[in-house]
Amino acid sequence: MDDDDDDFNVKNWATLHDAALEVLSTPSAHKKALLTQVIAKKWFDGTSILKARDISSGGKLVADTPERDALVTIVSSNSNKLKLGSGRSIESRRKILHSLSHIESWAIDLSWDIIARFGHEVEKEREFFDDFVRVALDEAKHHLLLTKRLEEIGGKYGDFPAHDGLWQSAMETSDSLMHRLVVEHCVHEARGLDVMPNTINKFRENGDEESALLLETIVYPEEIGHVKAGLKWFKFLLGDASERGGEETVKIFREIVEKKFYGALKPPFNDEARAKAGFDRRYYEVAVDAVV
Ligand SMILES: [Fe+2]
Ligand SMILES: [Fe+2]
Question: From what superkingdom does this record's organism come (predicted)?
């Protein structure tokens, strides 16, 4: 742990919106994770001011991009410097853990951004905030555990370059809660499920059972819950008139993916994990045809 761990701003935030802004404006990924744990505790233990249902924005605007320090060098998403390798060498395994840890740090910001940016649209739905505070807490845990594991095998967060593609696509959906849910919280989260079994194998086959188990028993099952939350609130926004899961729901979902998701949705898909999140093949099969 850093010497300045205590040095992040723990306050009695008046609203969850204010607390979310605090994380987004904190430059250090490590401190974003620690702050998330503090806020989530306040939110769920019901003893703090955050118990109040006041989650309104109070007119405060959310910055386009969260604060980030320069610890990790950001390069273009197609840079050769981002090649992770097969996991055979320890350097490759460090790179994979670093890459995952970095993605988790953006996932922390994404969870708070959906609360801060769109909370006023679902202000009466306490469960929406419960769900995304829980997602933020999971992502914070993932970031901290992956960084710890990286340190155990001789690396540290900041050792390798990374890209910020996840935020680039977040910005494309900053004007619509429904689009944000579909693109970031369903499509991107589900993509994480697709690649996870292969990543786990890279560690297992090369003798790093500890990293394999961390991914397999903690990160992977919790990511399924994140896709589930994204899909649940997408359906909620469709309203009572929709079939909520019927053909119309799927059609609207696919139209949003076609319009707002940039990049290729490539198989193989992890049908089993996606199905556990309620994200059946109808949601992504035709969308794939559209981009191939
Ligand atoms: Fe995660
Ligand atoms: Fe996630």
Answer: Eukaryota
Give the ligand at the shortest distance from the Cα of 218. 1
Closest ligand to 110 CA? Answer: 2
Cα gap 190→13, rounded to integer Å: 33
d(CA 242, ligand 1 centre) in Å: 30
User: How far does residue 226's CA lie from ligand 2's centre (Å)?
Assistant: 5
Q: Which two tokens stand for residue 43?
A: 């939110």
**Residues 165, 66: Cα–Cα separation, whole Å:** 13
Distance 196 CA to ligand 1 centre (A): 11
* Ligand approaching nearest to the C-alpha of 144: 1
3-state SS class at 290? helix
- pLDDT of amino acid 226: 98
As to burial, measured by CB atoms within 10 angstroms (0-12 exposed, 13-18 middle, 19+ buried), residue 109 is buried
How many CA atoms lie within 13 Å of 128's alpha carbon, on the beta-carbon side? Answer: 22
Structure tokens at 27: 């430059």
Q: Is 257 exposed, middle or buried (0-12, 13-18, 19+ CB in 10 A)?
A: buried
Q: The tokens of 55 are what?
A: 């989650």
Q: How far is CA 65 from the centre of its chain?
A: 15
The crossing angle, in degrees rounded to 10, of helices 189-205 and 90-118 is 160
DSSP-derived 3-state class of residue 162:
strand
pLDDT in tens, 76-134: 988 999 999 999 999 999 999 999 999 999 999 999 999 999 988 888 888 999 999 99
